[in-house]
């Protein structure tokens, strides 16, 4: 057998010190970031000098979006089965009425989830087309942390805030 060589494990200690202050600030604001799972995926750890939306980052967000989509599809399935099982004839009209109410609420929730699934599909497509991660309005990077919080975001935080203010003004 080969003798054991003392190859040092790829140490990341030098990389982590080379972060920009902006990255550090974002990390400080989310102390539990390392333990947080985004639809089953651990938060992304950028390496110094890494290109924004390079292959690794794209793979990261594809995995998040696909896992999320899967969760939603299971949820839709579960509800349909639940409703099929539960829709057995209830003798009491009050029970029937409350069940109908419950079902219509469920159906509205499922409708929202289907729309979200469509949005996730569009987002996955944008990853393939290299459009993902950039603001639709100003073209700036949306940023990894914001995308992890809102994987289907198409606006940077500034443009989003502005859009919300405008929307409020229109309503008010
Ligand atoms: Zn923007």
Keywords for this entry:
two-stranded antiparallel ribbon, binds zinc ion, disordered N terminus, Four Helix Bundle (Hemerythrin (Met), subunit A), mainly alpha
Would you mind describing this structure in some detail?
By secondary structure, the chain is mainly α. The protein has two domains: 51-132, DksA, coiled-coil domain (Four Helix Bundle (Hemerythrin (Met), subunit A)); 134-172, no CATH class. 59% of the residues lie in helices and 2% in strands. It contains six helices and two strands, in the order H-H-E-E-H-H-H-H. It has helices at residues 13-16, 21-29, 55-86, 93-128, 144-149, 157-171; strands spanning 37-38, 41-42. The protein has a two-stranded antiparallel sheet with strand order 1-2. Helix 3 packs antiparallel against helix 4. Zinc ion (ZN) is lined by residues 135, 137-138, 140, 155-156, 158-159.
Summarize the structure.
The chain has 172 residues and is mainly alpha-helical. It folds into 2 domains: 51-132, Four Helix Bundle (Hemerythrin (Met), subunit A), CATH 1.20.120.910; 134-172, no CATH class.
| Bound molecule kinds, no repeats | zinc ion
Instruction: Count structural domains.
Output: 2
CATH architecture of the largest domain: Up-down Bundle
Overall geometry comes to: elongated
What portion of residues belong to β-strands? under 5%
Helix content: 55-70%
CATH-derived topology of the largest domain: Four Helix Bundle (Hemerythrin (Met), subunit A)
N-to-C terminal Cα separation, in Å? 77 Å
Instruction: Give me the CATH superfamily of the largest domain.
Output: DksA, coiled-coil domain
Content-based structural category: mainly alpha
The pLDDT mean sits at 83
Radius of gyration, whole Å:
23 Å
Question: What can be said about the biggest beta sheet?
Answer: 2 strands, antiparallel
Order of helices and strands: HHEEHHHH
Give the CATH class of the largest domain: Mainly Alpha
Number of helices: 6
Strand arrangement across the biggest beta sheet? 1-2
Q: Give the strand tally.
A: 2
Q: Low-confidence spans: pLDDT under 50, at least 5 residues?
A: 1-29
